[in-house]
Description:
Elements: H1 7-11, H2 37-54, H3 60-70, H4 75-102, H5 113-128, H6 133-147, H7 150-166
Helix pairs in contact: 2-3, 2-4, 2-5, 3-4, 4-5, 4-7, 5-6, 5-7, 6-7
Amino acid sequence: MSTLHDDNFWDGPAQEPLLPKTGKRTRGKPNTRTERVETRGRARALQALYAADLRDQAQLRRIATTVFDDLAVDPEERAFASRLVATVADGGAQLDAALAEVTNNWRLERLGAIERSVLRLAAAELARDEAPVKVVLQEAVHLAERYGTERSARFVNGVLDAYARKLGKL
C-alpha cells in the first residue's frame, strides 16, 4: 500500500509520463533528464499543498519542508517548488478568495483536495507572473488529470480560464 511518503503514490499508476512534446516518451516513471525542472517542481509543490490540505494548512511551510526532505527532492526542483509554496503560504487567503469568485456554485472547501491544491498552485504561479499564462494553465490541467481524474482536469481548466480572464491575463 502506498503512503504520502512513497514516490509510487505520487507517480501514480503506470501511464505515459508528462514530458515536453520534444522529449522521448517512455512508459513508467518520467524521464527526469528530459522533463523540465519546473514541471517536476510543480508536482513537488502540489505534493506539499496536498499534504498540508489534508493535515493543517497553517503549517504549510513546515509540511513542505518535511515532504521535500522525505522525498529527497532535487535542489533545483525544491527551489522552484518552495517559491510556489511560499506564495501560497503568504497569500493563501487572498488566492482562495479570488478563486472562490470564479468557482461558480462551488465553495473551495467543497472541492476535492487535489483540485483545490492544483487551483491554489496555479493561482500562486499566476501571481508570481514568471511563466507564460498558457503554460501555467496547461501544467495545472496535466497535474489535475494525472493526480485526479479527467473530470478534475476539465473543472480545473474551466476555473483557471475564468480566473486568468478575470486577472486580464487571457
